[in-house]
Amino acid sequence: MANAQTEIRSNDPTGVAKVDMKFEIVVIPVSDVDRAKEFYGRLGWRLDADFASGKDYRVIQFTPLGSGCSIIFGKNVTAAAPGSAQGLYLIVSDIVAARAELLGRGVEISDVFHDDAGVHAGTDEPYLFGRLRVRGPDPDHRSYRSFASFCDPDGNGWLFQEVTTRLPGRVDPATTTFASANDLASALRRAAAAHGQHEARTGQADKNWPDWYAEYMVREQSGKEPPQ
């Protein structure tokens, strides 16, 4: 992720790879395979595979709801120390709802937090914006700026990051997709709130609200200026 002093570059066709490379698997090092299976199942993630070959090999795969990337763990699948996987980010459109979901499933998770306006040094657990966590969501509800963290039983570290609008160049502007029904519902709620402000500015009801909603949601996802 670019920092505040680095220009975010758009895709340069001369420098973009011409072969698709889809990032699909993250290996999670665990000490107790069955305990880890219970934990990730409790998150509500989809169990894709649980394969064993004798006593010396076992691999389990889970996929978070709406994700194109899966995790695997097991026996003799990695030499990494249990708990050494850190900074694993789960992108959500509503961090308060995502946190409540985990709490409802009996998973311990931190309060929502944000960065301290450019202050990066501190004593907290490190994350994208440094080692200083300020309690509560980002005051301006900016995309990419609100987080919550949790760990699996071995201490592998996960974070929720709330993303409502993608930076330019991060999505195909010709394609609008939503990973889940929850993401779509959240986008509709944001469009409804923005449309209410639009009607307040114009002083009249908008009969073409479906078109306005659609334009807002497409522009929001592609990082363009929303309709006014």
Describe the structure.
The protein has four helices and nine strands; from the N terminus they run βαββββαββββαα. With about 230 residues, the chain is an alpha/beta fold. The model is unreliable at about 1-5 (pLDDT under 50). The protein folds into three domains: about 25-75, 2,3-Dihydroxybiphenyl 1,2-Dioxygenase, domain 1, CATH 3.10.180; about 85-165, 2,3-Dihydroxybiphenyl 1,2-Dioxygenase, domain 1 (Roll), CATH 3.10.180; about 180-220, no CATH class. α3 crosses α4 (about 210-220).
**Shape from CA axes?**
globular
Distance between the termini: 29 Å
Looking at the overall shape, the CATH architecture of the largest domain is Roll
In the predicted model, the low-confidence regions spanning at least 5 consecutive residues are 1-5
Helix percentage range = 10-25%
According to CATH, what is the topology of the largest domain? 2,3-Dihydroxybiphenyl 1,2-Dioxygenase, domain 1
User: What is the alpha-carbon Rg in Å?
Assistant: 20 Å
In terms of DSSP E residues, the strand content is: 15-25%
Label the structural class. alpha/beta
**N-to-C order of helices and strands:** EHEEEEHEEEEHH
What's the CATH class label of the largest domain? Alpha Beta
* Arithmetic mean pLDDT: 87
CATH superfamily of the largest domain: 2,3-Dihydroxybiphenyl 1,2-Dioxygenase, domain 1
How many β-strand runs? 9
Strand order of the largest sheet: 1-4-3-2
Number of structurally distinct domains: 3
Q: What is the helix tally?
A: 4
